[in-house]
Amino acid sequence: MGQSLITLTTDFGCADGAVGAMIGVIKSICPSAEVVSIAHDIPPHDIVHGAWALYQSTPFFPSGTIHIAVVDPGVGTRRRAILIETEKGTLLGPDNGMLAWAANAMVPKRHFAIENTSYRLGPPGLTFDGRDLFAPVAAHLANGVEPSQIGTEVTSIVDLSWPEPVVGRGRIEGEVLLDDRFGNLVTNIPVSLMAEVFGDTTVLITLSDRPVGGLSKGYGGIVGHLGAVINGAGLLEIAVPEGSAAALTGGRRCDRVAVTGRV
After folding, report:
1. Hey, what domains does the chain have and what are their CATH numbers?
2. In whole angstroms, how far apart are CA 104 and each of 100, 110, 208, 222?
3. Residue-wise pLDDT tens digits, 169-217
């Protein structure tokens, strides 16, 4: 039996043993599995932030990797548990939108509702699907169980809307997707769209009508003041190096961001 790679992304933190319990379940069922953590400090219940962590990281893992993602404020309710097959790997988690961005980036093929209770651990309760459902399912998949044995194929899952920027009259209007660990404000405006609209023209950026300035090549060009860069995901980001753009501006998710060409 070959070794399988399984990743974990949760909002559990590392202080209470929850992540360790998931790893223990996986290794008990599939001892050859290699288990790698993507992130466990997702803000509690923040599905969007969890989706962002997956979106940033999953494309860089080897083909065939199994990804478990659990930010699950609806645990214990009627929300579905899902398995998504993609061209690059498999995603497991609650059907609350957290898997959607990564699935789209990895090109989804089939979706399954996880229903076969024989792959679930027994009692004590219904509050820890990370350990009792998703970890054992991932381990059984790593052992060669087919997704069709896990549950029923479904035609749709809960989507998490990726707001598309709007282009018009030499202007791109977008919004803040989230603020990251450093207080950087990540937007939904890709560098590819900026290049298409503005070419080599110098641009000006505003956040909720507050001037941010132009675009810098890196954080070193904006030390000590508010500015903008293109981040590692290829998206426009508003930042204060060695500071927090979120704290300085009060910026938050869904705030308006505009890019215009300098006349």
Report:
1. 5-154 (3.40.50.10790), 166-261 (2.40.30.90)
2. 6, 12, 29, 33
3. 889 999 999 999 999 999 999 999 999 999 988 999 999 999 998 899 8
